[in-house]
Design a protein that fits this description.
Blueprint lengths: L3 H16 L22 H7 L4 H8 L7 H10 L4 H10 L17 H9 L5 E4 L5 E4 L1 H6 L13 H7 L3 H4 L3 H18 L4 H13 L1 H8 L8 E8 L3 E12 L2 E10 L5 H16 L9
Antiparallel strand pairs: 1-2, 1-5, 3-4, 4-5
Helix pairs in contact: 2-3, 2-11, 4-5, 4-11, 8-10, 11-12
Protein name: Helix-turn-helix domain-containing protein
Organism: Streptomyces akebiae
InterPro entries: Cro/C1-type_HTH (IPR001387), Lambda_DNA-bd_dom_sf (IPR010982), MLTR_LBD (IPR041413)
């Protein structure tokens, strides 16, 4: 029979680590009201890790064994370094291997060169989880200044749900947000043990009730084609066709471009927006390399 001592020490370690984090540290909104505990609450850790509060409570109380994927997610949620992560796994009696963990993605050189050459069409490259890996200046002018978004938060679904300006930029924000959730669902099916994706879903489920409800619908969507209407604060209404192309050298990288028919009002407004972007010194991603 397994001794309760390691499980109790595991619980004490989890409690200590969550007590050292604030909601702001993990991307949760500050409520402004008094908090009865120092650091994160159990339910906040559970939501960020996409597990039930009861499950997490049992872990802390030494009444539940944790699986390796759950431990891996908790290590990320609690911002553990490599030594702390290894210690967590040892307390739980699990090998601290990093099987199936994927490294940081960088944009394929061919896609970056293409972005650098495309100046009249907004374009971005998304990787796993919808992470924004690269963009051109016109995409920054169209959507948001991606360079101003911290790299760890430079994720398209996250931007849609956490940036207030997106709710007025997209004429049909609900439709666009639902599509983002459905695409994220497809990612989860492809990589069910991606700890960063699990943490992202946990964060957005905690921050936004609509995300939580739509995630629960289990609808899926691939990145293909479509039409979006944007209410841009500088040039007004833009009706844009979007299309997605997958890199043969990395099937987890997708180039999305927004175009308009030549001679249309939107086509002319894109030219005006490109001129405005140049005046604002909005930089493409390659300028940050």
């Amino acid at each position: 029979m397994t001794s309760n001592l390691p499980l109790n020490e595991l619980g004490e370690f989890l409690k200590k680590r969550r007590s050292e984090l604030s909601p702001r540290t993990v991307g949760l909104p500050e409520t402004g009201g008094p908090r009865r505990v120092t650091g994160l609450r159990r339910e906040e850790v559970a939501q960020l890790a996409s597990i039930s509060t009861d499950y997490y409570t049992r872990l802390e109380q030494g009444r539940m064994q944790a699986s390796a994927p759950v431990l891996d997610t908790l290590a990320q949620v609690l911002h553990l370094d490599d030594d702390e992560r290894g210690y967590l796994f040892r307390l739980a009696g699990k090998p601290a291997t990093r099987t199936r963990r994927r490294g940081r993605q960088t944009v394929q050189p061919q896609l970056q060169r293409l972005l650098d050459d495309v100046t009249a069409t907004p374009a971005i490259v998304q990787g796993r989880r919808g992470d924004v890996l690269a963009w051109n200046a016109l995409a920054s002018a169209l959507v948001t200044d991606f360079a101003a978004v911290p790299e760890k938060h430079r994720n398209y679904p996250r931007i849609i749900f956490t940036e207030p300006a997106m709710r007025t930029l997209y004429a049909d924000w609900d439709g666009s947000a639902r599509t983002a959730v459905a695409q994220l669902r497809m990612e989860a099916a492809n990589y069910p043990e991606d700890s960063r994706l699990i943490a992202l879903v946990g964060e957005l489920s905690t921050r936004d009730k609509q995300f939580a409800r739509w995630w629960g619908d289990h609808r899926v969507s691939a990145r293909t084609i479509g039409t979006k209407t944007l209410n841009h604060p500088v040039v007004g209404e833009l009706v844009l066709d979007w299309d997605t192309y997958t890199a043969n050298t990395d099937l987890d990288q997708h180039l999305t471009v927004w175009t308009a028919a030549p001679g249309s009002a939107t086509h002319e407004r894109l030219r005006i927006l490109a001129s405005w972007a140049a005046d604002q010194n909005l930089s493409p991603s390659s300028a940050l390399a």
